[in-house]
Amino acid sequence: MKLTFLSENKTEIGVCGAEFGLSMLIETPERKILFDAGASDLFARNALARGVDLAEVDLCVVSHAHFDHTNGIPAFCRINDHAPVYIHKDAFHTIYGTTDGVIDDYNCGILWTEEEKAALAPRLVLTDGAVWLDGDMVISGTIPDAPEYKPVEDFYLAMPDGSLAPDTLRHEQFLAIRTGEGVYLFSGCSHKGVPAAVRYCRTLFPGEPLAGVIAGMHLAFATPAMRSKVIDLLAAEDPKLIIPVHCTGLEAIYQIKARFGARCIMASAGKRYDLP
Description:
single chain; 18 strands; about 280 residues; six-stranded mixed beta sheet; alpha/beta; Metallo-beta-lactamase, Chain A
Protein backbone atom coordinates (compact mmCIF):
# COMPACT_ATOMS: atom_id res chain seq x y z
CA MET A 1 0.00 0.00 0.00
CA LYS A 2 1.25 3.47 -0.89
CA LEU A 3 0.44 6.79 0.77
CA THR A 4 0.94 10.29 -0.63
CA PHE A 5 0.20 13.44 1.36
CA LEU A 6 -1.45 15.99 -0.94
CA SER A 7 -2.32 18.54 1.75
CA GLU A 8 -0.75 18.96 5.17
CA ASN A 9 0.30 21.69 7.58
CA LYS A 10 3.89 21.66 6.39
CA THR A 11 5.97 20.61 3.41
CA GLU A 12 9.63 19.87 2.75
CA ILE A 13 9.19 19.68 -1.03
CA GLY A 14 9.80 22.89 -2.94
CA VAL A 15 7.19 22.30 -5.65
CA CYS A 16 4.43 21.72 -3.07
CA GLY A 17 2.54 24.11 -0.84
CA ALA A 18 1.23 23.66 2.70
CA GLU A 19 -1.98 24.75 4.40
CA PHE A 20 -4.01 24.01 7.51
CA GLY A 21 -5.79 21.06 5.98
CA LEU A 22 -5.47 17.37 5.20
CA SER A 23 -5.66 15.28 2.06
CA MET A 24 -4.13 11.86 1.43
CA LEU A 25 -3.99 9.55 -1.56
CA ILE A 26 -4.09 5.91 -0.47
CA GLU A 27 -3.22 3.35 -3.12
CA THR A 28 -3.98 -0.34 -2.59
CA PRO A 29 -3.56 -3.03 -5.25
CA GLU A 30 -7.31 -2.72 -5.94
CA ARG A 31 -8.15 0.97 -5.47
CA LYS A 32 -6.95 4.55 -5.40
CA ILE A 33 -8.66 6.42 -2.58
CA LEU A 34 -8.67 10.14 -1.88
CA PHE A 35 -9.06 10.63 1.88
CA ASP A 36 -10.19 14.23 2.46
CA ALA A 37 -9.46 17.14 0.13
CA GLY A 38 -7.91 19.85 2.25
CA ALA A 39 -8.96 23.45 2.79
CA SER A 40 -8.69 24.55 -0.86
CA ASP A 41 -7.64 23.29 -4.27
CA LEU A 42 -4.02 23.16 -3.04
CA PHE A 43 -4.22 19.37 -2.82
CA ALA A 44 -4.91 19.26 -6.58
CA ARG A 45 -2.00 21.56 -7.37
CA ASN A 46 0.29 19.45 -5.19
CA ALA A 47 -0.99 16.32 -6.91
CA LEU A 48 -0.12 17.81 -10.30
CA ALA A 49 3.34 18.80 -9.06
CA ARG A 50 3.96 15.23 -7.85
CA GLY A 51 2.64 13.53 -10.99
CA VAL A 52 -0.54 12.24 -9.35
CA ASP A 53 -3.53 11.96 -11.72
CA LEU A 54 -6.63 12.60 -9.64
CA ALA A 55 -8.79 11.52 -12.58
CA GLU A 56 -7.70 7.95 -11.79
CA VAL A 57 -8.99 8.00 -8.21
CA ASP A 58 -11.69 5.36 -7.64
CA LEU A 59 -13.42 6.85 -4.59
CA CYS A 60 -13.19 9.65 -2.05
CA VAL A 61 -13.78 9.38 1.70
CA VAL A 62 -14.59 12.48 3.76
CA SER A 63 -13.53 12.11 7.39
CA HIS A 64 -15.80 14.79 8.84
CA ALA A 65 -17.68 17.95 8.01
CA HIS A 66 -15.08 20.67 8.60
CA PHE A 67 -13.89 23.04 5.88
CA ASP A 68 -10.20 22.11 6.18
CA HIS A 69 -11.07 18.61 4.99
CA THR A 70 -13.88 19.36 2.53
CA ASN A 71 -13.20 22.64 0.69
CA GLY A 72 -11.29 20.81 -2.05
CA ILE A 73 -14.12 18.38 -2.86
CA PRO A 74 -15.68 20.59 -5.61
CA ALA A 75 -12.28 20.87 -7.32
CA PHE A 76 -11.78 17.11 -7.05
CA CYS A 77 -15.15 16.42 -8.68
CA ARG A 78 -14.32 18.77 -11.54
CA ILE A 79 -11.10 16.84 -12.19
CA ASN A 80 -12.56 13.38 -11.58
CA ASP A 81 -15.93 12.63 -13.22
CA HIS A 82 -16.78 9.29 -11.65
CA ALA A 83 -15.47 8.66 -8.11
CA PRO A 84 -18.21 8.48 -5.47
CA VAL A 85 -17.71 10.69 -2.42
CA TYR A 86 -18.52 8.91 0.86
CA ILE A 87 -19.65 11.46 3.44
CA HIS A 88 -21.76 11.10 6.58
CA LYS A 89 -25.44 11.90 6.23
CA ASP A 90 -25.22 14.33 9.17
CA ALA A 91 -22.38 16.37 7.68
CA PHE A 92 -24.47 19.22 6.34
CA HIS A 93 -24.81 21.75 9.14
CA THR A 94 -23.45 25.15 9.99
CA ILE A 95 -20.86 24.38 12.67
CA TYR A 96 -19.13 26.65 15.16
CA GLY A 97 -15.96 25.80 17.02
CA THR A 98 -14.67 27.40 20.19
CA THR A 99 -11.58 29.40 21.13
CA ASP A 100 -10.63 29.61 24.82
CA GLY A 101 -14.14 28.51 25.70
CA VAL A 102 -15.82 31.20 23.57
CA ILE A 103 -17.92 30.15 20.57
CA ASP A 104 -16.36 31.33 17.30
CA ASP A 105 -18.24 33.73 15.02
CA TYR A 106 -17.59 31.83 11.78
CA ASN A 107 -18.80 28.60 10.22
CA CYS A 108 -16.10 25.91 10.33
CA GLY A 109 -18.34 23.38 8.59
CA ILE A 110 -18.73 22.63 4.89
CA LEU A 111 -18.54 25.87 2.90
CA TRP A 112 -19.70 24.69 -0.53
CA THR A 113 -21.85 27.16 -2.45
CA GLU A 114 -25.44 26.22 -3.30
CA GLU A 115 -24.34 25.66 -6.90
CA GLU A 116 -21.56 23.35 -5.75
CA LYS A 117 -23.93 21.41 -3.49
CA ALA A 118 -26.32 20.86 -6.37
CA ALA A 119 -23.53 19.74 -8.71
CA LEU A 120 -22.05 17.39 -6.11
CA ALA A 121 -25.31 15.80 -4.96
CA PRO A 122 -25.31 12.95 -7.52
CA ARG A 123 -21.77 11.98 -6.48
CA LEU A 124 -22.41 11.79 -2.73
CA VAL A 125 -22.87 8.47 -0.93
CA LEU A 126 -24.35 9.24 2.50
CA THR A 127 -23.07 7.03 5.28
CA ASP A 128 -24.37 6.29 8.77
CA GLY A 129 -23.30 2.85 9.92
CA ALA A 130 -20.21 0.99 8.74
CA VAL A 131 -19.84 0.69 4.95
CA TRP A 132 -17.72 -2.27 3.80
CA LEU A 133 -16.16 -1.53 0.41
CA ASP A 134 -14.95 -5.13 0.33
CA GLY A 135 -13.94 -7.74 2.90
CA ASP A 136 -10.78 -5.85 3.85
CA MET A 137 -11.82 -2.20 3.69
CA VAL A 138 -14.43 -0.33 5.71
CA ILE A 139 -15.64 3.23 6.22
CA SER A 140 -16.68 3.37 9.85
CA GLY A 141 -19.69 5.63 9.70
CA THR A 142 -20.56 7.04 13.13
CA ILE A 143 -17.86 6.23 15.69
CA PRO A 144 -19.21 5.20 19.11
CA ASP A 145 -18.11 7.43 21.99
CA ALA A 146 -15.33 6.51 24.38
CA PRO A 147 -16.78 8.31 27.42
CA GLU A 148 -13.60 8.16 29.49
CA TYR A 149 -11.77 10.20 26.82
CA LYS A 150 -13.37 13.64 26.63
CA PRO A 151 -12.84 15.54 23.35
CA VAL A 152 -10.53 18.51 23.85
CA GLU A 153 -12.61 20.97 21.83
CA ASP A 154 -16.33 21.71 21.75
CA PHE A 155 -18.35 22.31 18.59
CA TYR A 156 -21.92 23.53 18.12
CA LEU A 157 -24.52 23.05 15.39
CA ALA A 158 -26.81 25.86 14.25
CA MET A 159 -30.43 24.74 14.64
CA PRO A 160 -33.31 25.85 12.35
CA ASP A 161 -34.72 28.04 15.13
CA GLY A 162 -31.42 29.93 15.44
CA SER A 163 -30.28 28.21 18.62
CA LEU A 164 -27.05 26.27 19.01
CA ALA A 165 -26.83 22.63 20.06
CA PRO A 166 -23.70 20.67 21.02
CA ASP A 167 -22.20 18.82 18.07
CA THR A 168 -21.88 15.16 19.05
CA LEU A 169 -19.65 14.64 15.98
CA ARG A 170 -21.80 11.87 14.55
CA HIS A 171 -20.46 13.01 11.17
CA GLU A 172 -16.91 11.88 11.95
CA GLN A 173 -15.73 8.61 10.39
CA PHE A 174 -12.51 6.78 9.61
CA LEU A 175 -11.23 4.42 6.95
CA ALA A 176 -9.67 1.10 7.96
CA ILE A 177 -7.86 -1.28 5.61
CA ARG A 178 -6.75 -4.82 6.38
CA THR A 179 -3.37 -5.90 4.96
CA GLY A 180 -1.12 -8.88 5.53
CA GLU A 181 0.60 -6.91 8.31
CA GLY A 182 -2.62 -5.98 10.11
CA VAL A 183 -5.14 -3.15 9.97
CA TYR A 184 -4.28 0.43 9.00
CA LEU A 185 -6.48 3.14 10.51
CA PHE A 186 -6.85 6.49 8.70
CA SER A 187 -8.53 9.30 10.65
CA GLY A 188 -8.88 12.97 9.74
CA CYS A 189 -8.92 14.75 13.12
CA SER A 190 -10.12 12.17 15.66
CA HIS A 191 -12.34 14.80 17.28
CA LYS A 192 -14.08 12.02 19.20
CA GLY A 193 -10.67 10.96 20.46
CA VAL A 194 -8.10 8.56 19.06
CA PRO A 195 -9.18 5.97 21.66
CA ALA A 196 -12.74 5.99 20.28
CA ALA A 197 -11.46 5.37 16.75
CA VAL A 198 -9.03 2.64 17.82
CA ARG A 199 -11.68 0.90 19.92
CA TYR A 200 -14.22 0.87 17.09
CA CYS A 201 -11.58 -0.30 14.62
CA ARG A 202 -10.93 -3.18 17.03
CA THR A 203 -14.66 -3.96 16.97
CA LEU A 204 -14.75 -4.00 13.18
CA PHE A 205 -11.63 -6.19 12.95
CA PRO A 206 -11.79 -8.28 16.15
CA GLY A 207 -8.57 -9.92 17.26
CA GLU A 208 -6.49 -8.42 14.45
CA PRO A 209 -3.33 -6.35 15.08
CA LEU A 210 -3.31 -2.63 14.43
CA ALA A 211 -0.46 -2.23 11.94
CA GLY A 212 -0.61 1.53 11.56
CA VAL A 213 -2.36 4.71 12.68
CA ILE A 214 -2.30 7.63 10.26
CA ALA A 215 -4.35 10.30 11.93
CA GLY A 216 -4.90 13.82 13.04
CA MET A 217 -5.19 13.47 16.80
CA HIS A 218 -6.33 16.90 17.99
CA LEU A 219 -4.02 16.93 21.00
CA ALA A 220 -2.72 20.50 20.68
CA PHE A 221 -5.04 21.71 23.44
CA ALA A 222 -5.19 18.49 25.45
CA THR A 223 -3.85 18.44 28.99
CA PRO A 224 -0.48 16.77 29.51
CA ALA A 225 -2.29 13.96 31.33
CA MET A 226 -4.65 13.38 28.39
CA ARG A 227 -1.80 13.43 25.87
CA SER A 228 0.06 10.84 27.92
CA LYS A 229 -3.08 8.72 28.22
CA VAL A 230 -3.63 8.71 24.45
CA ILE A 231 0.04 7.96 23.71
CA ASP A 232 -0.02 5.13 26.25
CA LEU A 233 -3.06 3.65 24.51
CA LEU A 234 -1.34 3.84 21.13
CA ALA A 235 1.80 2.26 22.55
CA ALA A 236 -0.26 -0.61 23.98
CA GLU A 237 -1.47 -1.35 20.44
CA ASP A 238 2.19 -1.62 19.35
CA PRO A 239 1.66 -0.49 15.72
CA LYS A 240 4.46 -0.85 13.18
CA LEU A 241 3.82 2.70 11.98
CA ILE A 242 2.29 5.86 13.35
CA ILE A 243 1.92 9.13 11.43
CA PRO A 244 0.45 11.96 13.53
CA VAL A 245 -0.86 14.54 11.07
CA HIS A 246 -2.53 17.93 10.70
CA CYS A 247 -4.19 18.90 14.00
CA THR A 248 -2.13 16.71 16.35
CA GLY A 249 -0.05 19.63 17.67
CA LEU A 250 3.73 19.92 17.67
CA GLU A 251 4.23 19.12 21.33
CA ALA A 252 2.17 15.95 21.01
CA ILE A 253 4.00 14.99 17.81
CA TYR A 254 7.35 15.38 19.58
CA GLN A 255 6.10 13.18 22.43
CA ILE A 256 4.85 10.53 20.01
CA LYS A 257 8.16 10.62 18.13
CA ALA A 258 10.07 10.24 21.40
CA ARG A 259 7.93 7.24 22.34
CA PHE A 260 7.85 5.45 18.98
CA GLY A 261 11.21 6.44 17.48
CA ALA A 262 11.69 5.30 13.88
CA ARG A 263 8.15 3.92 13.77
CA CYS A 264 6.83 7.50 13.88
CA ILE A 265 6.92 9.46 10.60
CA MET A 266 6.46 13.23 10.43
CA ALA A 267 3.94 13.98 7.68
CA SER A 268 4.72 16.51 4.95
CA ALA A 269 2.76 17.62 1.88
CA GLY A 270 4.09 15.97 -1.24
CA LYS A 271 5.83 13.09 0.57
CA ARG A 272 5.20 9.48 -0.53
CA TYR A 273 5.50 6.41 1.64
CA ASP A 274 5.33 2.67 1.15
CA LEU A 275 3.40 1.34 4.12
CA PRO A 276 4.82 -1.88 5.61
